[in-house]
Specification:
α10 runs antiparallel to α11 and α11 runs antiparallel to α12. The protein is globular and about 60 Å long. It is an alpha/beta fold and 318 residues long. This is Glycosyltransferase involved in cell wall biosynthesis. Keywords: Transferase.
């Protein structure tokens, strides 16, 4: 995607464009549209990007009669990142917000975020709190878990927050409102990633300027143990790719680098790939400061083993 792909702003352009990527979501797309149309801030356009669906997703979206809604049909599936990029290229607003086809926005989300951006004119984007609601494992007797992101352990939540994002992703896509020109200049989401493209983009975005924050759970996200397990292999590959792409940013931050390798080690163990888990564990230990030459050698050996382990991972099935 190139900046020239997007239509120019005009005095009649809405302040914000909301983009919903949708693939095979005929059963849920109308509810997702309704959650956006219920916003207390009403001066926006809404783009539903049908990502090559075959189940009537576009037709279902077109049943909603609202002049702010436009449905864009992609001729073939590009994945969530590609669909969001296509939406950004079609956007007419100065700001772009992203919603997923199965999550919920609270009615005041856009109003509060745009007000925060008006109060912080130097900010290039704003995000808000995310409440995740999910079922625990089968042996948890039907209990659910609530979690608020960013958690209380996160100290740097606003301003130049790239160090926070190198530790963990606190800017899920559906929480973000970003300046369109900045999004396009950064090249949008990386379509080569099988998953976690929101984290990789957030790292780049936070390196480009200040980020504002609304400390309220304005987005609700639901998940299940099955969905987390099903996506683990994609997440592992994406995490490794993001770490490699962002490696220069970890220079001088050995504790943050070690943290990422420990996470990869744990996830590899969960997936059953014990060889990769051992390699990541060795890399994590070697990343810490003050290590001796033998540790440096172990880093080299672990890197070779890790490369072999990554090559053995299956290709993306999507």
């Amino acid at each position: 995607m190139r900046p020239a792909d997007s239509p120019p702003l005009s005095p009649s352009s809405p302040p914000v464009t909301v983009v919903i990527p949708a693939y095979e979501r005929a059963a849920t797309i109308v509810a997702a549209i309704d959650s956006v149309l219920r916003q207390t801030r009403t001066d926006f356009e809404l783009l539903v990007i049908d990502d090559g669906s075959s189940d009537g997703t576009a037709e279902a979206a077109e049943t909603v009669a609202d002049p702010r809604l436009r449905v864009v049909r992609l001729p073939k599936n590009r994945g969530a990142a590609g669909a969001r990029n296509a939406g950004a290229a079609e956007a007419r607003g100065r700001w772009i917000a992203f919603q997923d086809s199965d999550d919920e926005w609270l009615p005041e989300k856009l109003a509060l975020q745009l007000a925060r951006l008006e109060a912080h004119p130097d900010a290039i984007a704003a995000y808000c709190g995310l409440l995740t609601v999910g079922e625990l494992d089968a042996d948890a007797h039907g209990r659910t878990r609530l979690a608020y992101v960013p958690g209380p352990e996160i100290e740097l939540v606003e301003g130049r927050i790239q160090p926070t994002l190198l530790m963990q992703n606190v800017m899920s896509t559906q929480t973000v409102v970003v300046r369109r020109d900045v999004f396009l200049a950064l090249g949008g989401f990386d379509e080569s990633l099988p998953a976690m493209e929101d984290w990789e983009f957030a790292i780049r975005l936070a390196g480009a300027g200040e980020i504002a924050f609304v400390d309220a759970p304005l987005v609700h996200q639901r998940f299940s143990p099955n969905s987390l397990t099903r996506n683990l292999e994609k997440q592992l590959r994406s995490h490794a790719m993001i770490l490699e792409k962002s490696r220069p940013l970890y220079a001088g931050r050995p504790d943050l680098l070690a943290r990422q390798y420990y996470i990869l080690a744990g996830d590899s163990r969960r997936s059953g790939d014990l060889d990769a888990a051992r390699c990541y564990l060795a890399l994590a230990r070697a990343a810490r400061p003050g290590q001796s030459r033998p540790i440096a050698m172990s880093l080299y050996v672990a890197g070779l083993r890790l490369a072999r382990a990554l090559r053995r991972q299956p290709p993306d099935a999507s």
